[in-house]
Amino acid sequence: MSLITVGVDDGFFPHEFKELRLKTILVGVLCVGKTPRSVKINTVTVDGSDGTLKTREVVEELMNEVGVPSINAIFLDGVTIAGFNYVNPIELHEHLRTPVIVIFKTELKLDRIRRALVKHFSDWRARYEVIEENYVRSQEVLTLKKRLRVVSYGLNLSEVSRLVSALQCMSASPEPLRIADLVASELTRETTLLEILRVHA
């Protein structure tokens, strides 16, 4: 039986989108094995607080379109999206009853993140708690390509290692997450789509 997994990642946005709280795109890709079967695009507020909801909507739309009652896992690239918007993987896991795997591609400087949040957000504590809790809980797993720092809800580390390794192809990222990143990046490389979102904000 083929693995059915989803990767979700956000697009680019100009700096002024942060001040104006405009939107960028959120892309979800559902793969059967390593093959993409469906792509969904949602919008998410730059520096907003709708990241968990918007991610959940994308995953649910993908599952409904393909007609599957459950999937093997959801992959996220970190817990922050669209600037300092964020996805709470625990809430996502509990609501969808699906394993959620967060991959941290870069080392986080938690002290710098905390200072930035305190400076710019009245709700900085809620945002920081999600970032800190998940990064502190993250651990390294060995995959076929390289070691990755992950935090997982619903799967143990050995299961994560096997799953990610089975879905690696062009890079260390599992295919649904790699393709979601590629689509989101390409769609926002030129700002035409973002300008349309600005007009309809």
Average pLDDT confidence is 93
- Helix coverage percent: 40-55%
H/E series, N to C? EHEEHEEEHEHHEEHHH
* Oligomeric form: single chain
What percentage of the residues does DSSP assign to strands (E)?
25-35%
CATH superfamily: archaeoglobus fulgidus dsm 4304 superfamily
- CATH overall fold name: archaeoglobus fulgidus dsm 4304 fold
Outline type: globular
Structurally, the number of domains stands at 1
What is the CATH level 1 assignment? Answer: Alpha Beta
- N- to C-terminal distance: 43 Å
Q: Which residues sit in consecutive blocks of at least 5 with pLDDT less than 50?
A: none
Query: What is the radius of gyration computed over CA atoms, rounded to a whole number of angstroms?
Result: 16 Å
Query: In CATH terms, what is the architecture?
Result: 2-Layer Sandwich
Structural class: alpha+beta
What does this structure look like?
Helices cover about 45% and strands about 25% of the residues. Helix 2 packs parallel to helix 3 and helix 4 packs antiparallel against helix 5 (about 125-135). It has about 200 residues and is of the alpha+beta class. The longest helix has 16 residues, at about 50-65. Strand 5 (about 80) and strand 6 (about 85) form a beta hairpin. The chain has eight helices and nine strands. It has helices at about 15-20, 50-65, 90-95, 110-120, 125-135, 155-165, 175-190, 190-200, and strands spanning about 5-10, 25-30, 35-45, 75, 80, 85, 100-105, 140, 145-155. It has one domain: 2-Layer Sandwich (archaeoglobus fulgidus dsm 4304 fold), CATH 3.30.2170.
